[in-house]
Amino acid sequence: xxxxxxxxxxxxxxxxxxxxxxxxxxxxxxxxxxxxxxxxxxxxxxxxxxxxxxxxxxxxxxxxxxxxxxxxxxxxxxxxxxxxxxxxxxxxxxxxxxxxxxxxxxxxxxxxxxxxxxxxxxxxxxxxxxxxxxxxxxxxxxxxxxxxxxxxxxxxxxxxxxxxxxxxxxxxxxxxxxxxxxxxxxxxxxxxxxxxxxxxxxxxxxxxxxxxxxxxxxxxxxxxxxxxxxxxxxxxxxxxxxxxxxxxxxxxxxxxxxxxxxxxxxxxxxxxxxxxxxxxxxxxxxxxxxxxxxxxxxxxxxxxxxxxxxxxxxxxxxxxxxxxxxxxxxxxxxxxxxxxxxxxxxxxxxxxxxxxxxxxxxxxxxxxxxxxxxxxxxxxxxxxxxxxxxxx
Length: 392
Description:
alpha/beta; Rossmann fold; 7-stranded parallel sheet; 6-stranded parallel sheet; 16 helices; 13 strands; globular; disordered C terminus
């Protein structure tokens, strides 16, 4: 079996491609990254087809005058690029949602199967939840272009399978009429070596540190975290790592922020140090796909508190690696955080379990092996179960 990967950007597509290559299953990678940048992540034997002008378009919008908004233009152009550059030796195309529509009929005409990678919930579910949350705080939600919604809906329908990272995300597809057999759940992975589990001593001489990593905005549930943290009464510290979402300043001005450190975006060693100095990790998202930051925190030996709409539902066994709470519930967040703040032994025990959990089931090797097993089933299943296609 040979798999072609088409990803507009990088996402987790390069990690998937590297794993497929290690198992001898990769045909090629099509990407908007220029080759020199892609080679930082992919070994040289991997065949690349690149469209760097599309990456430039996406990155220059908002920085250079007269560069138009990238969506849906980049998605449409990349879909056509992926269709033109499909390899002749591939049995299956894995393409990213919103940017694969044009390649699906071409792949089917060549006898290939198509898997759409969707990193979050069904796009209609996502749009509905975010619109309601923004309305709650008196903000206008940033609309997903209607053209992108329509593209994704067609991709869900026309592809042979849709891959999502969590059971919760899968349930939103089932609720919108996608057949159960078409939706595949495969949680992502991580390289644990990037986040060594070195914890500072919890000797009681400082308040435990709670860490959040991600975009500081409504989707990630920041107002609910700030309210829960304020109710801890100064018994902990909170660090928010990540860029502040546009328009979020007005929301933050109305929320309690005493004792909150805003670190801004961090990467590489800076991010690893943030995990190393923390005692608890919290991801209180209202809507999410699969927070890779959860895996990073767990690999770093942190107990986690997460909402049950994140990858936490796959990763966290309640009261073993941390706690799961409903989204938008500051009281439940307070209770979970308070329990960990008050009990250093619980933090150490859950942190060790979290690290072991990642090593046992959530590395990129585990993700790769689950993906290959699913692809094998999709490629070999009865043609009657797949969308009609040309025999040419």
